Amino acid sequence: MHRLTLLLSLLFFLSTATTFTRGHNITHILGKHPSFSTFNHYLTLTHLAGEINRRTTITICAVDNAAMSELLSKHPSIATIKNILSLHVLLDYFGTKKLHQIREGTALAATMFQATGSAPGSSGFVNITDVKGGKVGFGPEDNEGNLDVFYVKSLEEIPYNISVIQISKVLPSDVAAAPTPEPSAMNLTDIMSAHGCKVFADALIANPEASKTYQVINK
Ligand SMILES: *[C@@H]1O[C@H](CO)[C@@H](O)[C@H](O)[C@H]1NC(C)=O
Ligand SMILES: *[C@@H]1O[C@H](CO)[C@@H](O)[C@H](O)[C@H]1NC(C)=O
Ligand SMILES: *[C@@H]1O[C@H](CO)[C@@H](O)[C@H](O)[C@H]1NC(C)=O
Ligand SMILES: *[C@@H]1O[C@H](CO)[C@@H](O)[C@H](O)[C@H]1NC(C)=O
């Protein structure tokens, strides 16, 4: 078969296959809430969406577009944004009920930031505490016990796979917000994967000659 035909049938096969994929899709969940479109967009850009979809028993602490613009106004690199947003992915399931009934009123949650190994010491943990007045406060462990970010509302709960909640603002962590260098050289294969052309990118990896051609064309 001609290589392009093969590629196209492969693409068709995969696009039909995804229709039957089980499990949650964070992009789809947040897509129902326009005031979280920026957060949603950056989950995709940083590839965190894929990692979130692969995991279960997690909680996503989303922030609205206003909170995201405040973060973006500091012009962080995409790698820094990834670190910050991965701190908003708790590796445990916290539905609204559980948040308001935390044992002893306080808990430490591991995050995806901590799981990536980019976070030194306890900085990848988020402290969740039931504070006075029925409020639930959140604070990264490296933020000296400040719990000035609060639970706002639940956006979606799929027990016990994924809970998506809104918190009042971006979790302030100096460690996660530390500037991270951009990848030194952009790699076409990676760029295409990032834009949903994973199959084509994989075909390129499998075919070094074609890959060379594309690297040249794109210079
Ligand atoms: C939870 O995740 C598992 C594993 O991906 C999946 O089989 C199950 O259908 C999911 N449950 C719900 C309610 O979506
Ligand atoms: C997740 O949902 C988004 C928006 O609805 C869609 O574009 C994307 O293809 C979905 N991803 C998967 C893996 O199904
Ligand atoms: C969370 O922070 C509060 C306030 O600083 C503190 O009292 C509490 O012990 C911390 N919880 C955990 C589990 O470390
Ligand atoms: C680009 O990245 C892919 C996958 O990460 C890797 O296999 C390939 O060798 C890289 N190509 C170049 C030119 O660095």
UniProtKB/TrEMBL annotation:
InterPro entries: FAS1_dom_sf (IPR036378), FAS1_domain (IPR000782), Plant_FLA (IPR033254). It is found in: Cell membrane. Residues 23-171 form the FAS1 domain. It is a lipid-anchor; GPI-anchor. Its main location: membrane. Keywords: Cell membrane, Glycoprotein, GPI-anchor, Lipoprotein, Membrane, Signal. Residues 1-23 form the signal peptide. It holds the Pfam family Fasciclin. GO terms for biological process: root development; shoot system development. It comes from the Eukaryota. GO terms for cellular component: plasma membrane; side of membrane. Belongs to the fasciclin-like AGP family. This is FASCICLIN-LIKE ARABINOGALACTAN PROTEIN 1.
